[in-house]
């Protein structure tokens, strides 16, 4: 089930890193602590996840612990499917 | 207007009147445990810090740094510093340690009240700059317990106490550092009188009572915090602190507004926009809210209309003013925002205790309805920038009578109703999420990257607020990836200064005098 990682990666590249070489963004790239996602971008990402996967992300989950890497994000989504 | 009192006396006076009323509440954060203090307890904790600061050598006229997460401990520190006769210098705990070390060194603080989690990086950043000041080290800020524990440890068996400083109107109360165009932040010096005249004006216009419950959304290094802190404490109301983490999460923020039954809300417009979009406001009971105040940037009408339709009952005020003047003009938004309106509301009329002029490039008054630069005089206006006499002189216009007028740099025009309308800036400063950002400071930050040869930054207005675009040229064969650039910026600039986009180009376009051609960059953006 790698396609969650794929589709989250595609979304982040399109929305927040337009023009970036896709090879630079790995499943372990720090997104929040690395300055790629600010607070508004995080909200947009959460809305995308909720819509795409039909899940509800709680306020306390929309934080650096759950969203800092594509790997973390995919794990959060999987835990709710 | 009340007669002059030092700011700390506002707290102590209320503490004598209603010692058992709750002065400040700090809700639990994602990683912190909050609490609440009564007026008596807050006055006592700040007295204890005052005595400790004096023991460490703080005297009237000194500076005390505040470097911790937003908390009751922070509020007590502010009053402890004022009571010792010092000006407090709050820094953004989330900003890079190097920036904070620069600030605290620049104004040579005598003592820093410091939370342990920030200590190592701060010391490391300070090492090359100069001597390390004394510290009051707080293990973990929250509920006032961290500060109390630090004082328990350091207090001598017999505490030497003396009355709080009898600060005068011109004594500095705080220094707030804002973005500087040369790449270094600059310190805006505000006196007790500067703050008190603003607080008294708020009393007149907003008629606070001891039943009010004020939000404190802005961090303490942001000038919106002056209203948040001093107005409720003057009137015996309760101040409800919003922590850094919660402040950016609309769902939590909306919960807090409803559950804590806030009556007065004050923040940058961008936070209200977020609340309207993501806060499920229609599901909350916000019936206690009577005032919504916003300041710091232009409020796009689309978002203001959305907020007002979700929360129609309170009165809405647009407060305008650079840090140098606290607030200097204000405008009450009419009850209904017409559906066809797209133009932002005016910044309004001059606060009653101040005077305003609109001048041309040569400093001459313009005709009544012409555009020009807004200048402000009166008791709110700062003394100057810390240690920058030339910059201070440049930002004041002195008239024939010797009166100092602060040049805001904002271009305005008076509309037919006599309200000022904000038209733009004279220079390269923009507002982002309420913060002042000098584009030159971002460029100076980018130049620190070893691979970057040239950097130029432009601001593009959009419906979501200002977007910052960076154009870069790089040394041969050293083009960093976008991800590397963003990470570099996150480590070297406050988050609100990180550009939204980066374009790497071969060379930047130049004018005939070989300066960066910003006009062409804006067209490209």
What does this structure look like?
The complex is a heterodimer of chains A (81) and B (525). Chain A is mainly α and 81 residues long. Chain A contains 4 helices and no strands. The longest helix of chain A has 15 residues, at 39-53. The radius of gyration of chain A is 11 Å and the shape is globular. Chain B contains 16 helices and 26 strands. In chain B, β22 and β23 form a beta hairpin. In chain B, α1 packs across α2 and α7 crosses α8. Chains A and B meet through α2 of A and α10 and α15 of B.
Alpha-beta classification of chain B: alpha/beta
Cα distance spanning the termini of chain B: 50 Å
Q: Which class of secondary structure composition applies to the elements of chain A?
A: mainly alpha
* Quaternary organization: heterodimer
Described by strand count, sense and barrel closure, the largest sheet of chain A is: none
Overall pLDDT score of chain B = 93
- Unreliable runs of chain B: none
Total count of helical runs of at least 4 residues of chain A:
4
Radius of gyration of chain B: 23 Å
- Rg of chain A over CA atoms, rounded to whole Å, is 11 Å
What general outline of chain A do the C-alpha atoms trace?
A: globular
Compose a concise summary of this entry:
Chain A is mostly helical and 81 residues long. Chain A has helices spanning 3-16, 39-53, 64-67, 70-78.
Keywords:
heterodimer; A: 81 residues; mainly alpha; 4 helices; globular; B: 525 residues; alpha/beta; five-stranded mixed β-sheet; five-stranded antiparallel β-sheet; 16 helices; 31% helix
List strands and helices in order, with pairings:
The complex is a heterodimer of chains A (81) and B (525).
Chain A (H helix, E strand, L loop, with lengths): L2 H14 L22 H15 L10 H4 L2 H9 L3
Helix pairs in contact in A: 1-2, 1-4
Chain B lengths: L6 H11 L4 E5 L8 E4 H17 L7 E5 L4 H12 L3 E4 L6 H10 L4 E5 L3 H8 L7 E5 L6 H10 L17 E7 L7 E6 H15 L6 E4 L8 H11 L2 E4 L2 H4 L2 H10 L4 E4 L1 H10 L12 E5 L5 H10 L4 E6 L8 E5 L15 E2 L4 E5 L12 E6 L6 E2 L3 H6 L1 E3 L5 E11 L5 E6 L3 E4 L2 E4 H9 L4 E11 L2 E10 L7 H11 L8 E4 L13 H7 L1
Parallel strand pairs in B: 1-10, 3-4, 3-5, 5-6, 9-10, 11-12, 12-13, 25-26
Antiparallel strand pairs in B: 1-2, 7-8, 8-18, 13-14, 14-15, 16-17, 17-20, 19-20, 20-21, 22-23, 24-25
Helix pairs in contact in B: 1-2, 1-3, 1-8, 2-3, 2-6, 4-5, 7-8, 10-11, 11-12
């Amino acid at each position: 089930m790698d396609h969650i990682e794929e589709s989250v990666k595609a979304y982040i590249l399109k929305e927040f890193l337009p023009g970036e070489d896709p090879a630079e963004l790995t499943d372990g790239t720090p997104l929040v602590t690395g300055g790629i996602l600010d607070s508004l971008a995080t909200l947009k990402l959460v809305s995308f996840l909720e819509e795409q996967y039909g899940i509800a992300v709680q306020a306390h989950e929309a934080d650096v612990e759950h969203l800092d890497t594509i790997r973390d994000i995919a794990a959060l989504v999987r835990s709710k499917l | 207007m009340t007669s002059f009192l030092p700011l700390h006396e506002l707290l102590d006076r209320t503490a004598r009147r209603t010692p058992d009323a709750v002065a400040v509440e700090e809700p639990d954060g994602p990683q912190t445990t909050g609490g609440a203090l009564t007026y008596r307890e807050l006055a006592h904790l700040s007295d204890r810090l005052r005595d400790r600061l004096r023991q460490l050598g703080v005297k009237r006229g000194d500076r005390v740094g505040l470097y911790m997460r937003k908390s009751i401990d922070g509020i007590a520190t502010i009053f402890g510093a004022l009571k010792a006769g010092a000006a407090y210098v709050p820094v953004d705990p989330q900003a890079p340690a190097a920036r904070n070390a620069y600030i605290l060194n620049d104004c040579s603080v005598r003592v820093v009240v410091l939370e342990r989690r920030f200590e190592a990086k701060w010391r490391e950043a300070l090492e090359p700059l100069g001597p390390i000041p004394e510290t009051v080290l707080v293990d973990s800020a929250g509920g006032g317990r961290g500060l109390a524990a630090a004082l328990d440890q350091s207090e001598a068996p017999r505490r030497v106490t003396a009355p709080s400083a009898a600060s005068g109107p011109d004594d500095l109360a705080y220094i707030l550092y804002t973005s500087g165009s040369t790449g270094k932040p600059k310190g805006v010096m505000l006196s007790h009188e500067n703050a008190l005249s603003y607080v008294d004006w708020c009393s007149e216009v907003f008629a606070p009572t001891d039943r009010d419950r004020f939000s404190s959304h802005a961090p303490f290094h942001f000038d919106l915090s002056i209203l948040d802190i001093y107005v409720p404490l003057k009137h015996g109301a309760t101040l409800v602190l919003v922590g850094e983490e919660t402040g950016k999460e609309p769902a939590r923020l909306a919960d807090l507004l409803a559950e804590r039954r806030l009556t007065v809300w004050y923040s940058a417009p961008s936070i209200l926009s977020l609340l309207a979009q993501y806060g499920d406001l229609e599901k909350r009971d916000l019936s206690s809210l009577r005032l919504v105040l916003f300041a710091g940037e232009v409020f796009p009408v689309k978002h203001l209309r959305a907020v007002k339709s979700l929360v129609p009952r309170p009165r809405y005020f647009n407060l305008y003013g650079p840090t140098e003047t606290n607030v200097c003009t204000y405008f009450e938004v009419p009850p209904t925002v017409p559906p066809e309106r797209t133009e932002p509301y005016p910044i309004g009329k001059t606060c009653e205790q101040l005077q305003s002029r609109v001048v041309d490039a040569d400093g001459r008054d313009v005709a009544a309805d012409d555009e020009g630069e807004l200048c402000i005089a009166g008791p709110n206006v700062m003394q100057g920038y810390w240690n920058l006499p030339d910059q201070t002189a440049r930002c004041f216009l002195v008239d024939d009578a010797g009166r100092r007028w602060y040049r805001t740099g904002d271009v305005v025009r008076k509309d037919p109703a006599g309200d000022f309308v904000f038209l733009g800036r004279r220079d390269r400063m923009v507002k982002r999420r309420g913060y002042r950002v000098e584009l030159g400071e971002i460029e100076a930050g980018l130049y620190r990257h070893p691979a970057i040869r040239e950097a130029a930054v432009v601001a593009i207005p959009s419906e979501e607020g200002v977007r910052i675009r960076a154009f870069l040229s790089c040394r041969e064969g050293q083009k960093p990836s976008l991800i590397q650039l963003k990470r570099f910026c996150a480590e070297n600039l406050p988050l609100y200064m990180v550009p939204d986009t980066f374009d790497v180009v071969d060379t930047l376009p130049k004018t005939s005098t070989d300066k960066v051609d910003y006009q062409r960059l804006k067209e490209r953006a």
